[in-house]
Design brief:
There is one protein chain. The protein is α+β, with helices and mostly antiparallel strands. 30% of the residues lie in helices and 27% in strands. The chain has helices spanning 2-16, 49-65, 123-129, 141-163, and strands spanning 21-27, 74-75, 81-82, 87-93, 97-104, 110-116, 172-175, 180-183, 188-194, 199-205. A five-stranded antiparallel beta sheet has the order 6-10-9-8-7, with helices on both faces. Strands 1-5-4 form a three-stranded antiparallel beta sheet, sandwiched between helices. A two-stranded antiparallel sheet has the order 2-3. The longest helix has 23 residues, at 141-163. The termini are far apart.
Length: 206
């Protein structure tokens, strides 16, 4: 069951990723913290280390494909992953699954990813996430709100390495039908998403 789910998420990620962007997933397992390199263990709460280890294991595999085997992915000032020079990428996880994407910086300037359960976003969170400038397209508010949540998280992860700005949900306007996000700074990003087998969102700029 776990392997089938991983395979489904991997296929979905491959369908979202543009040319040059590598992606992968791993179901979070007990003792996945073993995959954290020594330099990556600092400042992590023990209960978060399995999720971080699962994400880092995927990311290390992607780096190996890109010719950067064995290099640690440290944490920046806001906890964001710091990739080797010439590489861009993103890591995310929900309660049970970790995902990562990575690419050479000459393929995309920046990329962000997020994963969420395929469940409607609660109404109290929708009031925080959804702004008048957002366009849900054909989605009903519940699952549409969840997609917006994931897309905005991915867009933030993609924008931060470029702009260094901390963004709130209200700072990102998304048009799901057009596959576009606009940051309050005016930066535009392409977004791609799916709601099966989970809500997966990817944002990037070329």
């Amino acid at each position: 069951m776990a392997q089938a789910e991983e395979n489904a998420v991997n296929r979905a990620l491959a369908g979202l990723a543009p040319s040059g962007v590598h992606a992968g997933c791993r179901r979070i397992r007990r003792d996945d913290e073993q995959y954290l390199l020594p330099a990556e263990r600092a400042s992590r709460e023990p209960r978060a280390r399995d999720a971080s280890g699962a994400g880092r294991r995927i990311a290390h595999e992607l780096l190996e494909r890109l010719g950067h085997a064995g290099q640690p992915i440290l944490r920046g000032r806001m906890g964001e992953p710091v990739w080797p020079a010439g590489i861009v990428g993103s890591i995310a996880h929900d309660d049970t699954m970790a995902i990562a994407v990575a690419a050479r910086a000459d393929a995309v300037r920046s990329v962000g990813v997020d994963i969420e359960p395929a469940l409607p976003l609660p109404a109290d969170l929708r009031s925080v996430v959804v702004i008048p400038e957002d366009h849900l397209g054909d989605f009903e508010p519940g699952i549409g709100g969840r997609v917006l949540f994931a897309v905005k998280e991915a867009a933030y992860k993609a924008s931060f390495p470029l702009d260094g700005q901390i963004l709130e949900f209200e700072d990102i306007a998304v048009d799901l039908a057009a596959g576009a996000a606009v940051i309050s700074s005016g930066r535009r990003m392409t977004v791609r998403f799916t709601i099966r087998p989970r809500v997966l969102a990817l944002a990037y700029t070329i």
